[in-house]
């Protein structure tokens, strides 16, 4: 119906989402007159034009009031000059207006997920760095099942079993789903499991410790169109029917909210909007960087194709062949490949096709086709299968040989290009790189838990545009402006793609950009290539992804050299399998391969059941074949397979250690005169339980341990986890605490231990990791049930590495029990001895296993990780997989004591658990019968340091390094491939009589000598432009030539990614990238250049930035460049670099100058009457401060500080009142404009004042910690005394600043460190000292108390300390300060800037809302104050 009669002003909301465009028109009563919900298929501009044109035809009124919202709406609002409203704000308004009874609203969009808690103060949560668990995720998963989202919904209706699937992002989930498909799991069960994964991700990732209860509204397209998804939410949350709110137009709710929300709207018409949209199509400005075209012209493309067409293998016709032939099948993640060859390797038959989610059915059909074409004179004498589906297909089709795919690919490459040195295979979901040296596999690299950058991503994206891969990639070949997508993970790329599309990027530009991205991901993230020369001369690329000419061309362009792509690139796995069948065939052998007559009647059935053989209770998938044979998958051991359990009696020290640590019998209740104490079976308790059990038992307590871990334990605590990216071992803690509480335990002991007992005397320190140290604090503040149930929760920070101090501290902490000191001392003595006895038992057992290996000729693998990796729920049965190959499993601590370490290491050996790793690797280096596999929990930032060092130690003796990333999902397919690849490579080496050469792994540090002082330029990475440009003067006036690098460019991030482990934190990538980029620039004489970096010496990774830098320098060819450590702890000494009293004096002046300038500039600039006047005054004072630092006059310093404050006090400002927003977090991210995407500039543009705490406060915090450590931990009196002196000295310099600020009209002096410590100690312990530690929480408290209630808490993605003192403290801060409006934002090279801005804008919307409420005299929507008096956004 055409609404031509309507003449009132209508209200329009346009919601531009990540995958859809929604338009709603309502009248003044809020009734929807017109609506559209349409997928934009990544063409946002054309879809908007189309939607506006249709609306124009329906509504010919010339008066509409418009607001735009949605994740893609910010840019659109700028094009059309229409007001933007943040989507959560729009949705919240719609909920409050239309369904006011709502307690919690859950909204899922294409790439965004939000939860809003409607309480006295509305709390709004939005997904951060990951788009997992959203509509785009569901679309990706549906494509794996060869259906769409609606088809997934239909499948899920009839599910029977839920499998655990990761929903962090699409590529992780594929890693879980594909093996289920390969093993025959029912697609109906997988569909429901996908929906359950979305539910789990939403609850754990967004609720972040806050319980979802009451009336719950379900909003957004996925929840509207997919009732089975909604059903999974309702069941998981345990909602009653009356608690479920599902509005009629729930998929349009955000658009409705934008239409009806009060505030400024643009009055216009649809015709005018359409005209504006058409005009912006002509834009040529690119925010997203572009790259070189793949080909300049068609001639270049033809030359490329002609060159690669020459790389072909010999072929013949099967129907003309007679004699024995050999079958090879490659059951890949998304495709099935097969070849028949003769004994010389000539291909007689080949097949390459999609497996359509059913590899067994696909393989059976191929075999049937082969038999139909096989002449009577030809016969298959041997067969081999490789790939993901190897186990199932080998069993079902009775194939003779199963071989791991890495070896199959190596055999094919060596046959095709004898003497091959480098093989890169990119498949649908996995990536393999083999380096070959002297005819033997030297190194195997596989993509870890993530399959980003593999072929399936290109396929999925192509399908989202309604194209196949060939058509999509073809459009990229001659594209003029390929989009630079970097090396982002699959879902992270989408926001960048959207931005490029808004700028007019074509499908071809995106296709070419994705091809570049796949190769960058392979080279820089997986292989971590530093120098193309490392690859050798003979390079083969293979795998289905390389059939794509755009991907191959990208590889050659980035590498700068030509490579060989066989004409059978997609068949190389199958070809290699067939070659193995030839190689291992023995005359007279009769193949077991299923015969022709049987294949015609082949059938199978799939069922699922729980094993029940142990506490793992594995979910088994059982395939039963027509002949009665069975294949069972999903089991972590041989139990449940239906056959006799294999008893190889191979030593497994994981089992032994688990029993030895926990096999203690508690006192009977009637003998426990002091009651019961519960201890959770988590983290450091896997190391220290013998101590704590003995200690409490000796004191007369019954010690009750939480139940063994399993997935049900995890689910018990899932709602209370405040950080979605913390490691799985930490997430399990919440469930173990709940387990103890559910069992009625009233006293729980879970201590915080910053240090372990030092085992390696030459190690630099013996810290625990930040999570192990402090996670007990997260539990205390995020599990409300502890207070609700009246639990006595004891979690002191204790000096575990100092027996005498530990005794005193336990006496203090357990004072409530009234136990005499002598009794506690006696208990500590007994416990100390028991723990030592356990360690000796484990070491003795390790020595026994080594003797066993020597006697039996068996091999052993040290499965090296953390103490808690012996938890079967965490290691997912990996030790059993290894023993299943008749290989003994040892723990790192069972052999570390036998190692003779070469030192110094390249890294700072700062963590005790990791000292064992290094020692174990050093021991493996000396034994021919031992290898090492490192276990790494996903999200463990410390392993960015340890993995590289362990790899260096092993490779120095020719050993192959293997790492297994593990998380909450228990799919072991990828782990099996890695383990088998290692074992197969070892066997291949043995067959080739490979002999490794040993080199030293000790790192030779280049000292900065006295002679270098006068002639070397010292490069310092930029961290805080305001401060560092002043600090450098203190060095330069003292005889050094120190150059602080300019504020870094985006390119330095790419350089950093190339040289730094990509699991390292963002600051380390930026810092290293700056230095390497500068050294490569050609501006510096490399023989007379050094670099400098600060070291704090604590338990944070920042202490090891120096290790990252040294590794990068070596790999970039700058190994002779000295690295100077700037620290106050004597960590490293350089003869030519001294911090003299004169330098310290000038540094203190520079630091205070920087703080006062930053404070006054940020305070005044948002209100300046004359544009740029604040910046001009700032620049004037920077010059004067530089001169003052050079002179070193303290008198002039004091005068300047006073005058700076006065000048900024007197600068003309407008009569405006604005909200104030605090900026806190990790130190580099907080101060570096590149790291935080210019957050201060963004805030000022949004109409608020940014408040950034002083840099000096961090120095005070570092100085204050030894005072606490002397009193409560193992710190010394000397350290405490020196710290007090340092604090007094620096306060002496800050005294003038504080005095001037206190006397000013506009500014507030900072609190002393003692005051900050007092504030923080009311929330958390001052023992939290890793990274920013308790100081981060103190900063937030100080800001809130000075009226800055809006805070951005910034951290690098997966920053371990901030899991505790940042994200982990938001809940108690909100409880203590109900008006606190805090948003945690992660920063990372792969983070979506659009998402970050959306999250900040969401916080700002709440800030403005609260601001208007507090300032009633201000008209809604107008931030100007009526009177002329100068007023600011908070008390001054």
List keywords for this structure.
globular; 5-stranded mixed β-sheet; alpha/beta; 1436 residues
Describe this structure in a few short sentences.
By secondary structure, the protein is an alpha/beta fold.
Output the radius of gyration: 32 Å
* Helix percentage range: 40-55%
Q: Give the biggest beta sheet.
A: 5 strands, mixed
Number of strands: 38
Strand pairing plus helix content: what structural class? alpha/beta
Strand arrangement across the biggest beta sheet: 3-2-1-4-10
% residues in beta strands: 5-15%
The general outline is globular
Write down the overall mean pLDDT: 87
- First-residue to last-residue Cα separation: 59 Å
Number of helices: 52
**Ranges with pLDDT <50 over ≥5 residues?**
1-6, 281-286, 640-645, 1417-1436
């Amino acid at each position: 119906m055409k609404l031509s009669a309507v003449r009132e002003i209508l209200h329009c909301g346009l919601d531009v989402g990540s995958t859809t465009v929604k338009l709603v028109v309502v009248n003044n009563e809020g009734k929807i007159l017109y609506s559209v919900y349409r997928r934009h298929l990544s063409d946002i501009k054309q879809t908007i034009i189309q939607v506006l044109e249709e609306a124009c035809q329906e509504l010919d009124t010339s008066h509409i009031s418009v607001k735009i919202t949605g994740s893609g709406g910010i840019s659109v609002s700028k094009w059309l000059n229409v007001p933007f409203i943040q989507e959560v704000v729009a949705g919240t308004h719609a909920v409050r207006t239309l369904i006011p009874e709502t307690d919690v609203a859950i909204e899922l969009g294409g790439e965004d997920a939000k939860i809003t808690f409607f309480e006295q103060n509305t709390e709004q949560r939005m997904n951060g760095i990951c788009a997992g668990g959203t509509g785009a995720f569901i679309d990706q998963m549906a494509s794996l099942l060869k259906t769409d989202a609606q088809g997934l919904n239909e499948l899920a209706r009839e599910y029977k079993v839920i499998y655990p699937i990761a929903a962090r992002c699409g590529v992780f989930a594929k890693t879980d789903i594909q093996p289920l498909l390969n093993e025959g799991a029912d697609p109906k069960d997988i569909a429901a499991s996908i929906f359950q994964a979305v539910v789990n991700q939403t609850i754990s990732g967004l609720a972040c410790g806050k319980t979802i209860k009451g009336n719950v509204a379900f909003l957004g397209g996925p929840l509207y169109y997919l009732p089975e998804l909604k059903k999974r939410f309702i069941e998981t949350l345990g909602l009653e029917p009356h608690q479920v709110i599902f509005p009629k137009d729930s998929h349009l709710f955000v658009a409705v909210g934008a239409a009806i929300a009060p505030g400024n709207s643009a009055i216009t018409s649809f015709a005018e909007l359409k005209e504006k949209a058409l005009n912006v199509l002509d834009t040529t400005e690119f925010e997203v960087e572009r790259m070189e075209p793949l080909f300049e012209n068609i001639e270049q493309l033809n030359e490329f194709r002609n060159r690669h067409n020459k790389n072909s293998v010999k072929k013949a016709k099967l129907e003309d062949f007679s004699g024995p032939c050999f079958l090879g099948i490659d059951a890949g993640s998304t495709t099935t490949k097969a070849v028949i060859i003769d004994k010389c390797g000539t291909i007689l038959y080949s097949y390459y096709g999609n497996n359509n989610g059913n590899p067994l059915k696909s393989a059976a059909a191929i075999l049937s086709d082969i038999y139909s074409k096989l002449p009577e004179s030809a016969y298959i004498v041997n067969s081999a299968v490789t790939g993901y589906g190897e186990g199932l297909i080998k069993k079902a089709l009775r194939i003779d040989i199963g071989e791991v795919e890495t070896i199959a690919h190596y055999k094919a490459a060596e046959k095709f290009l004898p003497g091959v040195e480098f093989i890169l295979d990119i498949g649908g979901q996995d990536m393999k790189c083999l380096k070959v040296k002297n005819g033997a596999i030297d190194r195997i690299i596989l993509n870890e838990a993530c399959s980003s950058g593999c072929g399936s991503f290109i396929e999925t994206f192509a399908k989202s545009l309604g194209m196949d891969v060939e058509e999509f990639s073809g459009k990229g070949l001659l594209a003029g402006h390929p989009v630079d997508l970097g090396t982002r993970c699959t879902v992270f790329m989408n926001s960048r793609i959207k931005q490029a599309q808004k700028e007019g990027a074509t499908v071809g530009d995106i296709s070419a950009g994705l091809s570049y991205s796949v190769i960058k991901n392979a080279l820089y993230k997986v292989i971590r290539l530093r120098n193309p020369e490392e690859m050798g001369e003979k390079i083969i690329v293979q795998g289905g992804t390389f059939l794509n000419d755009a991907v191959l061309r990208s590889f050659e362009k980035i590498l700068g050299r030509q490579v060989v792509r066989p004409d059978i690139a997609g068949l190389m796995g199958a070809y290699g399998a067939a070659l193995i069948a030839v190689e291992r065939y023995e005359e007279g052998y009769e193949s077991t391969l299923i015969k022709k007559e049987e294949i015609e009647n082949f059938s199978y059935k799939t069922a699922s059941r729980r094993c029940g053989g142990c506490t793992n209770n594995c979910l088994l998938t059982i395939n039963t074949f027509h002949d009665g044979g069975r294949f069972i998958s999903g089991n972590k051991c041989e139990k449940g397979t239906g056959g006799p359990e294999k008893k190889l009696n191979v030593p497994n020290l994981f089992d032994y250690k688990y029993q030895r640590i926990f096999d203690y019998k508690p006192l009977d209740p009637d003998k426990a005169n002091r009651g019961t104490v519960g201890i959770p079976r988590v983290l450091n308790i896997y190391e220290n339980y013998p101590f704590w059990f003995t200690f409490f038992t000796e004191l007369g307590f019954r010690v009750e341990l939480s139940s063994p871990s399993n997935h049900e334990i995890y689910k018990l605590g899932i709602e209370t986890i405040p950080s979605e990216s913390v490691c799985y071992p930490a997430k399990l803690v919440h469930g173990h605490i709940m387990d103890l509480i559910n069992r009625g335990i009233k006293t729980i002991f879970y201590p915080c231990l910053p240090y372990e007992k030092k085992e390696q005397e030459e190690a630099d320190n013996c810290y625990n990791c930040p999570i192990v140290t402090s996670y007990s604090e997260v539990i205390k503040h995020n599990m409300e049930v502890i207070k609700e149930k009246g639990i006595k929760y004891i979690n002191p920070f204790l000096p575990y590495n100092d027996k005498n101090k530990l005794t005193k501290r336990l006496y203090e902490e357990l004072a409530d029990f009234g136990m005499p000191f002598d009794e506690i001392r006696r208990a500590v003595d007994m416990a100390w001895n028991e723990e030592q006895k356990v360690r000796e038992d484990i070491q003795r057992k390790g020595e026994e296993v080594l003797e066993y290996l020597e006697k039996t000729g068996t091999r052993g693998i040290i499965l090296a990780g953390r103490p808690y990796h012996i938890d079967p729920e965490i290691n997912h049965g990996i030790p059993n997989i290894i023993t299943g190959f008749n290989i003994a499993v040892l723990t790192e601590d069972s052999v570390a004591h036998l190692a003779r370490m070469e030192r110094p290491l390249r890294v700072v050996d700062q963590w005790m658990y990791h000292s064992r790793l290094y020692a174990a690797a050093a021991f493996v280096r000396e034994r021919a019968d031992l290898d090492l596999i490192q276990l790494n929990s996903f999200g463990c930032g410390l392993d960015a340091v340890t993995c590289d060092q362990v790899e260096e130690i092993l490779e120095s003796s020719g050993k192959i390094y293997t790492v297994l990333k593990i998380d909450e999902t228990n799919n072991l397919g990828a782990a099996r491939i890695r383990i088998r690849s290692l074992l197969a490579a070892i066997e291949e080496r043995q067959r080739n009589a490979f002999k490794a050469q040993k080199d030293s792994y000790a790192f030779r540090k280049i000292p900065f000598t006295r002679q270098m002082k006068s002639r070397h330029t010292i490069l310092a990475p930029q961290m805080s432009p305001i401060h560092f440009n002043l600090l450098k003067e203190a060095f330069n006036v003292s005889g050094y030539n120190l150059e602080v690098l300019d504020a870094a460019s985006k390119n330095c991030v790419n350089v950093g990614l190339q040289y730094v482990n990509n699991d390292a934190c963002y600051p380390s990538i930026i810092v290293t990238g700056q230095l390497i980029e500068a050294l490569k620039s050609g501006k510096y004489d490399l023989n007379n250049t050094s670099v400098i970096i600060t070291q704090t010496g604590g338990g944070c990774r920042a202490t090891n930035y120096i290790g990252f830098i040294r590794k990068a320098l070596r790999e970039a060819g700058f190994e002779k460049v000295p690295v100077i450590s700037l620290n106050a702890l004597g960590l490293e000494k350089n003869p030519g670099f001294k911090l003299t009293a004169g330098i310290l004096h000038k540094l203190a002046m520079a630091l205070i100058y920087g703080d006062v300038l930053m404070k006054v500039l940020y305070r005044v600039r948002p209100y300046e009457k004359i544009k740029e006047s604040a910046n001009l005054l700032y620049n004037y004072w920077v010059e004067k401060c530089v001169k003052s630092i050079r002179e070193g006059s303290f008198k002039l310093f004091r005068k300047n500080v006073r005058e700076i404050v006065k000048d900024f006090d007197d600068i003309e400002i407008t009569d405006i009142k604005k909200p104030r927003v605090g900026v806190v977090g990790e130190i580099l991210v907080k101060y570096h404009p590149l790291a935080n995407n210019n957050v201060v500039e963004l805030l000022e543009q949004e109409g608020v004042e940014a408040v950034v705490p002083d840099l000096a406060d961090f120095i005070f915090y570092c100085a204050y910690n030894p005072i606490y450590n002397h009193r409560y931990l193992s710190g010394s009196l000397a350290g405490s005394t020196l710290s007090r002196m340092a604090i007094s000295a620096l306060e002496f310099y800050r005294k003038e600043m504080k005095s001037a600020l206190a006397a000013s009209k506009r500014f507030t002096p900072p609190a002393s460190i003692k005051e900050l410590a007092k504030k923080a100690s009311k929330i958390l312990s001052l023992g939290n000292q890793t990274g920013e530690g308790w100081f981060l929480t103190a900063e937030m408290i100080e800001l809130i108390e000075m009226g800055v209630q809006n805070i951005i808490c910034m951290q690098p993605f997966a920053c371990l300390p901030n899991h505790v003192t940042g994200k982990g403290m938001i809940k108690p801060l909100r409880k203590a300060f109900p008006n606190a409006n805090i948003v945690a934002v992660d920063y990372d090279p792969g983070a979506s800037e659009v998402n970050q801005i959306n999250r900040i804008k969401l916080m700002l919307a709440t800030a403005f809302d609260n601001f208007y409420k507090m300032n009633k005299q201000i008209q809604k929507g107008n931030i100007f104050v009526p009177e002329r008096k100068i007023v600011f956004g908070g008390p001054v």
